[in-house]
Amino acid sequence: MSAEKLSRIDSIDDTDKTRKGSHDTLQTDSRRPSIITQSRRQSRFSFASRRSLFGGHGSLIGMLRGGVNKNIKYENTYRIQPKPNERIKQKQLRNLIQTTLDHTLKDVIYEPLQARILSMNLANMLRKNVRELNTPSRYKFVVQVHIGSPERNSIFISSQSVWNVEMGDTYASAIFSNSKIFAVGIIHAVYFE
């Protein structure tokens, strides 16, 4: 063996002795310098320093489940009012509510437990029909359906809204009533800029 290799082996043996409990202190010169500079070294516990292999996605499984979800951004049209042909007509809304209530409730008898479910189903049906009537639309719809028994005392229903009629905001309501059940349907249509 060469003299250089023997001196390296001796220095390694000396450092092993000091590590195993010898009372001699280690010299800082005996350690090898790091190849990676301090500016490139990353902490194991730092979240900011770690990067996903898949870009902005959390994991491969997440990509396989939902695919690549990119949000589509639409440019602003800067329209604050609907076009005249896009305005919702109050008469159409009223007819839609009346035909839906008439068709659905003509043979129904009022039962308190089922009235809650029936009113939710009617509201969802009205919302779906209004969206089909006005597609594509910038309107947001609020649909309310109240169901009750005509045998009980009188009922008062009121609704208030803050809106701008010039912008196309409107509402419509219709009433269905027979000897077994009554219902009130209200649709508020608010233009969404």
From TrEMBL:
Single GO molecular function: dynein intermediate chain binding
Region (Disordered) residue spans: 1-41
InterPro entries: Tctex-1-like, Tctex-1-like_sf
Pfam families: Tctex-1
Gene Ontology cellular component annotations, sorted alphabetically: cytoplasm; cytoplasmic dynein complex
Bias (Basic and acidic residues): 1-23
GO biological process, any: microtubule-based movement
Family: Belongs to the dynein light chain Tctex-type family.
Name recorded for this polypeptide: Uncharacterized protein
